[in-house]
Amino acid sequence: MLEAFAAARGQEKLRDEIEQLLTQAEQYQTQLLQPPGDNAYETYQQVLTLDAENDRAQQGLARIIDTYQQQAEALRDQGQWQDSLAKIDEILQVFPDNAEMQSLRKRCKTPSMLLKTKRNCSKRSPNFWHRRNTIASKVN
Predict the structure, then answer these.
(1) pTM surpassing 0.90?
(2) Residue 139: what pLDDT?
(3) Which of 2, 66, 114, 130 is most exposed, with minimal Cβ within 10 Å?
C-alpha cells in the first residue's frame, strides 16, 4: 500500500513538472530557439525526455517549425532571399530531417544564387564585357 502511494505521488510530481515546463515553453513566444538554455525548443525537448508521447510538446515543436516556415516564406516573398535562407538554416540545425524546410531551402537557394551571380556580373567592368563579347564572336 505504501509503495502504491509513493508511486502515485511520484507520478503526480512528474505530471506537475511536465505541466510547469509546458507552461514555460508556451510563454516563449519570441524565444523559439534562442537564447540557449532558455527557449521553447529546449523546454519542449525536456518535456519529451520525461514523457516521449506528450502531445502538447510535440504540437509545440510543430508550431516552431510552422513559425519559421512562415517567416522564411514571408522573407522570400519580399525578395529577401538571403534572410529567408538564414531563417531556414537556423531551423534545419535543430530539425535537419524536416522535408518541408529542406524543400523550401532548395526553392529559395536557386533564386538567391541567380541574384548573387547577377550582382557579381553587374560589378564587372565594361572592359570585361567587351573582351568577353569579342572572344565570343571569334568563337562563333
Answers:
(1) no
(2) 46
(3) 2
